[in-house]
Amino acid sequence: MKKTIRSFVLLVVMLAAGISSSSAGDFEGVIEFVKMTTTDTSNYVYYVKGDKIRIENTVKGEVKGVMLVDLKEKTLLALSPDRKLYMDVNNSPIDPGTKSDYEVIKTGNKKSIHGYECEQVRVRNKAKNTEVTYWLAPGEFGFFLNLVTTVNRKENAMVYYLVLDGVEASFPFLSVEYSLLREERTRMEVTKITKQAVGDDKFKVPEGYVKFEK
User: Fold this and answer.
1) For residues 185 and 179, is the Cβ–Cβ distance under 8 A?
2) Residue 11 pairs with which residues in a beta bridge?
3) How far is 151 from 89, CA to CA, in rounded Å?
4) Which residues does residue 123 pair with via DSSP β-bridges, in sequence order?
5) Tally of CA atoms within 13 A in the half-sphere of 198 that contains its CB
6) Angle, alpha carbons 74-76-82 (nearest 5°)
7) For 57-86, what is each residue's pLDDT tens digit?
8) pTM attached to this predicted model
9) What's residue 60's pLDDT?
10) Cα 45 from Cα 145, distance rounded (Å)
11) pLDDT for 161-171, tens place per residue?
């Protein structure tokens, strides 16, 4: 009996150690990035903690919009700081279409971005006259692919990402959308990344906010 108990305790300890080592590699902290199109520039901040993501849209340092994402529950809440409102968001799933319509080119090129070694991958769709080039940092960003399929944004940088294989723990530090003539259309680029503890309050609707019902 004592031997059985000791074996069970050892198994629990081993499982706990395995969980600890796997979760220790998951990124927690703040990622700031800028999105530039031919007509506009927008700034965003991701707060990341486990299955919880807070996305802020900032203008001249002022938060204009917030989205709270629960990756486990697959839920989205949009917050308006100006109007002190929040609402549920239901987006239809992204459908990139048939993978055979895309050409994935792993160039083997690498470069360091903010201390992370990123690898270049290009995704091309000739029928849509579009290519998206990604510089991917691997290893500790397991939240991102789940975020893409939860938020379901229809930008090509997000849609084309779903065509890639083996990117479950990667994050695009830089993505650029081109025409096939290499005319740049959209650029999204990480400007700062900080590993730090993030408080649970970041993922809650603040007191005083009222739910907006359509």
Assistant:
1) yes
2) none
3) 9
4) 104, 132
5) 20
6) 170
7) 988 888 999 999 999 999 999 999 999 999
8) 0.84
9) 82
10) 17
11) 999 999 999 99
